[in-house]
Design goal:
This protein is an all-alpha fold and 235 residues long. The chain has one domain. It is built from ten helices and no strands.
């Protein structure tokens, strides 16, 4: 079967490979309309919603979608934007009103993220559009649950520990990919060559993306939580 984002593009053609799937466009439009009409939405929440929808459009409509068929590093960038940018933005747009322990959500989201980077599961998802959407939905859904729990009005210390743990697991997976001696992902063994990258170099780049910039959103949230905890301690 053909990957959902299409066959691997060449550098000459990839910028023209937009995805105009009506279900994706319609789903984003519904999310935007429903969110903007939410009775309790405030300005900051609406901005979070707009930014989240913009990131999701970048991931699933723009040529980045096609590029993920060619480069594993582009796929990792896609996953990072999904779980560490779009998900927390949507969590800010739809915050939890009650305190929620972040531990269970951290465990589930970490297991799901690592599972979909197991080479066998990853290859299966790229080969089957239905399984591809299972991967995307599970990554996004568990990340959203994690961020909503972390940002809920609960104990700042527990949220901070969860954010630091999430940072650590992202860095660990990135290091494993960056230092693996052999390419692990069969779908990209040949598709990287037109881009001037060998599959191992592409995998190393993916690991570095996960290891360094992929940790940044978690660290930013950790700093925010530290400030929240400090303010709580002062009152």
């Amino acid at each position: 079967m053909t990957a959902y984002c299409g066959p691997p593009p060449t550098p000459v053609e990839w910028l023209s490979q937009w995805n105009f799937d009506p279900l994706v466009i319609g789903g984003l439009a519904v999310m935007l309309v429903v969110g903007m009409r939410a009775p309790r939405s405030q300005r900051g929440q609406r901005q979070g919603l707009l930014l989240a929808v913009a990131v999701l459009a970048l991931l699933f409509i723009s040529p980045l979608c096609a590029l993920t068929s060619a480069l594993f590093s582009a796929r990792v960038l896609h996953h990072l934007l999904l779980v560490a940018v779009a998900a927390p933005l949507l969590a800010l747009a739809f915050p939890r009103a009650a305190a929620t322990a972040p531990g269970p959500a951290l465990i589930v989201s970490t297991l799901v993220f690592w599972a979909w980077h197991v080479p066998t599961f990853y290859a299966a998802a790229l080969d089957d559009p239905a399984l591809y959407w299972v991967m995307q939905a599970s990554l996004f859904g568990t990340a959203l649950a994690f961020w909503r729990a972390v940002l809920s009005p609960g104990e700042p210390a527990a949220a901070l520990v969860a954010a630091v743990a999430a940072t650590a697991q992202m860095g660990l997976l990135g290091a494993l990919l960056a230092f693996a001696p052999n390419p692990l992902y069969a779908p990209h063994l040949a598709s990287t060559l037109p881009w001037g990258l060998g599959p191992l170099a592409d995998q190393q780049l993916a690991g570095l993306l996960m290891w360094v910039p992929g940790m940044a959103p978690y660290l930013v949230i950790a700093v925010v939580l530290m400030r929240r905890g400090w303010r709580t301690a002062q009152t």
